[in-house]
Amino acid sequence: MSIETQNNTNSPLHKFHQWWQQAKHNTPLKYHSAFSLSTIDAEGFPASRFVDLKDLNQQGFIFCTDSQSQKGQDIARNSKVSLCFWWDHIGRQIRIQGHAKTLDPNTSNHYWQQRPWAARITTLCSQQSRPLHGDTNRHQRHQELTQQWASTDGELLDIPRPEQWCAYGVEPTRIEFLRFKESRLHEREVYWVDSGAWVVGGLQP
């Protein structure tokens, strides 16, 4: 990323990281890193779904998905995306706008290796976002792949990453932080990129 990283205490990425850690350490939620990812579909409509934030680093806000899924195809047509994190248990919300892109194969391999073995099997047998034509073939395929990648001695074999399963990085251009307050007098602070640097300002609730 050409703009300041989360290591800069004046950067919104540093602030995001602090809030994210608070959300993870003080949460009743199972999926504490989930966020709503919105893309623009082929007809110009916004399309939203929840995905898991894997990391925040020099490559941006990182998530993984099938590049042939709806969101993958949306991003291939239009890189503009928005992210929304909502952590009710600590009274925070973060909205992000930016551009998404696929990352290099080594990065995708790194996150694939972190994926649970059973979830890798599901990835192999699923054509994400394609129409479903009955459950029989899908479950049969899952069972066949499970048997194929489990060795005779019970050890689980390493499953290679499918080419279409990719890591994506979102480089932010605008980040808004909202801290919930009584009587809806919420505190809103927005950062945006101007000439390669972050500018900050406040917003009315």
Overview of this structure, please?
The radius of gyration is 19 Å and the shape is elongated. The longest helix is centred in the first third of the chain and has 14 residues, at 12-25. It has a single domain (12-115, 163-203), classed as Roll (Pnp Oxidase, Chain A). The protein is built from five helices and nine strands, in the order αββββαββαααβββ. The two termini are 30 Å apart. With 205 residues, it is α+β, with helices and mostly antiparallel strands.
What's a concise summary of this model?
The chain has 205 residues and is α+β, with helices and mostly antiparallel strands. It has a single domain, classed as Roll (Pnp Oxidase, Chain A), CATH 2.30.110.10.
